[in-house]
Write a structure and sequence with these properties.
alpha/beta; 10 strands; globular; 253 residues; 6-stranded mixed sheet; 4-stranded antiparallel sheet
Length: 253
């Protein structure tokens, strides 16, 4: 059973069909790319998967169960976490607290324990802090734990956002242009990090990216959108040589 599956997925805004008949199956621990020209509907698909938009047609299943109609926080709790094209960190909070805040829904101490700082509260807080530091170490950010997020270089802010998404213990990680603004060295390092994340956290990854060398180098399967419809789907080699894909990106064969 795929961990994430869409069937005939679509959404209409007024008279505009932004996404139509999108179908794919993301297997457990698979890295899949969702690509296409600007305006192809990629981020709209992400917004459908995470409950920002409700589809006007079709189905989304996580572990075989429909998540259509669920609220964003319910979908996150069910096992889908995401990053954004424009970085959305809590920039006036520390790097450590940015990760810890994503763990709040899993904390089990009582309201009274928190109010009166009882031993259960401190025990749980210590465990959360330890796990947050372990996540930061995956991205070599543990030395910046006490820094404000706004003071990190751009590339490290991107990594912090991924670390925060992983803090929610997702089954599926959605990455929206994770390599945007990175230099070639940072991009190569990110590729290695994503592969390590997949293995270490046993998570499936669905990513949007315009850097084709990045996509072709890391994805096992690629889905190509154009004007909200799938025009190609398959291995990097198949997609790279598809005439429809070439025409969509270059405006002609």
């Amino acid at each position: 059973m795929p961990v994430l599956e869409t069937e005939n997925l679509g959404i209409t805004f007024g008279g505009l069909r932004a996404v139509e008949n999108v179908h794919f199956a993301l297997e457990k621990e698979q890295i899949m790319g969702l690509i296409g020209p600007n305006g192809a509907g990629k981020t709209t698909v992400f917004n459908l998967l995470t409950g920002v938009y409700t589809p006007t047609e079709g189905q989304i299943k996580l572990d075989g169960k429909s998540i259509v109609g669920k609220k964003t926080y319910q979908i996150t709790k069910a096992g889908i976490a995401r990053t954004f094209q424009n970085i959305r960190l809590f920039k006036d909070m520390t790097v450590l607290d940015n990760v810890k805040v994503a763990m709040n829904y899993g904390m089990k101490y009582s309201f009274l324990s928190g109010i009166f700082s009882l031993p259960g509260y401190w025990r749980e807080e210590a465990q959360v802090e330890q796990r947050a530091l372990e996540l930061l170490s995956v991205f070599h950010l543990e030395g910046n734990a006490g820094d404000l997020a706004r003071n990190l270089p751009y590339g490290q802010q991107r990594k912090l956002e991924i670390a925060r998404a992983l803090a929610a213990r997702p089954k599926v990680l959605l990455l929206d242009e994770p390599a945007a603004g990175m230099n070639p060295t940072e991009t190569m390092e990110l590729m290695n990090t994503i592969q390590r994340i997949r293995e270490q956290f046993q998570v499936a990854v669905l990513l949007i990216e315009h850097d084709m060398s990045f996509v072709m180098g890391i994805c096992e399967h690629i889905v190509v959108l154009d004007y909200g419809k799938i025009i190609a789907s398959g291995s990097p080699e198949v997609v790279r040589n598809d005439p429809k894909v070439i025409a969509a990106y270059l405006g002609g064969e």
